[in-house]
Write a structure and sequence with these properties.
The structure is a single chain. By secondary structure, this protein is mainly alpha-helical. It has two domains: 110 residues, Lysozyme (Orthogonal Bundle), CATH 1.10.530; 50 residues, no CATH class. Helices cover 49% and strands 0% of the residues. The protein is built from ten helices and no strands. The chain is globular and about 55 Å long. The N and C termini lie close together (10 Å).
């Protein structure tokens, strides 16, 4: 499968991302179907390959809708957090995934980065060590974004999985965005079969 050709489906992709995907995915012995699932999941997580860091710039309404546990039922005034990405990250990622409390700043430091939006100090520490790196910002580079996504995929045995719902649950803990992920997969698969 020529991954570079899929680039035409994402004309606004970050420059160089598909060239790195072509090189890195060709090192893997996954099935073509699994590689298409990987690309579809990455497409969804990265805003169709247009961003490599998590967008945490939420309005008041979005905060309450997306994070009700913290801003509707969590005894916090959402007005103090709207459009303040660093503050939001430090609340929603506090005391989770190896992060410290809200004051530690770990939520912001270890926010979602890369094509799969790797999140949390625990994941970052393992991933960066395995990739021979130390700086979290590496995941914001084209190479780091691709390599960290592949690392996550293999570490979570998604390269052995053939069900998009199961893969989605392992990536984001639920089925958030499942329909778009399926749409991306079907779009990619149809394109590959017809080229």
């Amino acid at each position: 499968m020529e991954i570079i050709k899929i680039k035409s489906l994402y004309p606004n992709a970050i420059p160089g991302i598909f060239e790195v995907l072509e090189v890195e995915l060709n090192k893997e012995d996954w099935t073509d179907e699994n590689k298409m699932m990987f690309i579809a999941q990455c497409a969804h997580e990265s805003g169709y390959f247009r961003r490599l860091t998590e967008n945490l710039n939420y309005s008041l309404e979005a905060l309450i809708k997306v994070f009700p546990k913290y801003f509707k039922f969590g005894f916090r005034d959402p007005y103090e957090y709207k459009y303040k990405p660093e503050k939001i990250a430090n609340v929603v990622y506090a005391n989770r995934m190896g992060n410290g409390d809200e004051k530690s700043g770990d939520g912001w430091k270890y926010k979602g980065r890369g094509l799969i939006q790797l999140t949390g100090k625990f994941n970052y520490t393992k991933c960066l060590k395995d990739l021979g790196r130390t700086e979290p910002e590496y995941l914001e580079t084209v190479e780091g974004a691709v390599r960290s996504a592949i690392w996550f995929w293999k570490t979570n045995f998604l390269n052995k999985e053939d069900n998009m719902t199961t893969i989605t649950k392992r990536i984001n803990g639920g089925t958030n965005g499942l329909q778009d992920r399926l749409n991306q997969f079907n779009r990619i698969k149809t394109f590959v079969q017809n080229t």
